[in-house]
Amino acid sequence: MRRGDRGWGVQPMSALEVDGAPRPLNGTRPDPQQARQGAVDDLKDSLKELLRTLLRTTVGVALEKVEGLAGSFDAMAASGGLAMGGVLGGVKAGLAGKNPVWGAVKGAIGSLSPAVRIGLVLALVLALVLLPVTVVLLLIALIVLIIVAAAKAGS
Length: 155
Known about the structure:
Blueprint: E1 17-18, E2 21-22, H1 32-79, H2 81-95, H3 100-110, H4 114-154
Antiparallel strand pairs: 1-2
Helix pairs in contact: 1-2, 2-3
């Protein structure tokens, strides 16, 4: 630290101290060019320190805001339900360069409770098991409709 610097900023120096070097009190004045140059150097140092402090503070505040925003997004995703999970999943997949529709489906399913996921899996398995029965019933209904249409046309 320089003489006169108490840690909270640069203190003004006397005219006898140019560039931090004390001058003897013999009645001579320092060279005006040296005095100006010393003052300009002190001003540059002060401005650099001010800029450093300003940048540290600004970056710190910005990082705190980003962390808070990320936390709020996590909270929304956790408690936002099916729609919010779908939206966030689609956005995440879109940003990753993948299919956003599939990402939305995965996000929506991921936001469901485990009991609802199990119910969804059981419903899909049941639909796959009953699909042949459904197809047979549709074919029988189609045959009946054809027979009824033929009977009406023949009468």
